[in-house]
Amino acid sequence: MLKDVKFRPKKILFTIGSPNQASQMHQIASLLPEYDCYFSQLYSKHPIVKWCKKKGFLENTILSGEFKRKGDAYLQRHRLRNDYARGIYGHEYDMAVLCTDLLVAKELRRLKTVWVQEGMTDPVTPLAKWTHRLGLPSWSAMNTAFNGCSNICDIYCAASAGYKAQFSRWGTEAARIFVTGIPNYDHAAVHLDNDFPHHNYVMVATSDIRECFNKDDRPGFIRRCVEIAAGRPLLFKLHPNELKERAIAEIRQYAPAGAMIFTEGNTDHMIANCDELITQYSTVVYTGIALGKKVHSYFDVEKLRQLAPIQNGGGSAASIADLCRRYIEFKGTREDFLARTTIHQHTNSSHERLREKDRHYYSNQA
User: Fold this and answer.
1) Could you give all domains of the chain from N- to C-terminal order, each with its CATH number?
2) What is the pLDDT of residues 190-219, one digit of tens each?
């Protein structure tokens, strides 16, 4: 007599951090319906990291605080299974899809791993250069400068050929890096059709520089924005990780009385309706570049044009999901897979429905 054999779908764990990362991972997972997909806020079981978290030192990072609260709320709202730190369901996973390689738990390194670029990386500071020279862990740079450069994951999904070159230059094998584009920054034209009521202003997208323990001359920055606007209306969109009360008070003090200030709302729609975009260290500058806006950034703008995410009509999530599917089913070694694999470029996918559904819930500002 034949025994019934139950088919066990393979299991994938997606790590999330910011709201943008949660959205990206959700889009990819939605295109892998044949697998059991679970999610977890970024975590670490290292005793030092756990101690720092317990003491509240990590409240402004994606490991804890407001980022974790928003991540948990997002998973609950979309009825996605939350297996935080692999401590809820007790599953053994076949693959981990990671939002960062700066901090990867040892238990995840034993799995097949795919890293997905979220957006812009922080500048390589003198401290970052020294950590690289000394061979210290990438997180020692105290920013995201080396996110994507640790060479820990099996596969890396990059926004553009420019970023592939950057990640390779700082440590990741070029053979592991595939230019897939990245969800939420691969179809800027879609944001031109929006219901944001304001038009014809100079937009300022701020960054959480101080919250990440770096110096930011915010009064000087605001005064520079006023100069660039030259009498035109100003609209400020605050980074979701900023101390809002402080940032609003500074704008009220140094900007004209009529300046608009938003702490919530769809950043991409605001960019689509602006005449000019001013940023600090924000990924949303790429939306402005893709839409042909005049942009300002603390980074060199010409270099940003070389790094700008490819525009593929919203197909990045499908390309990344296709890579995940092919790799999780591959029976050979990582080296064999990399030698045989090319990207299947997709131009659109059903994840646009997710973006539209959440357009009033998130800011895609990174």
Assistant:
1) 11-186+310-357 (3.40.50), 188-307 (3.40.50.2000)
2) 999 999 999 999 999 999 888 877 889 999
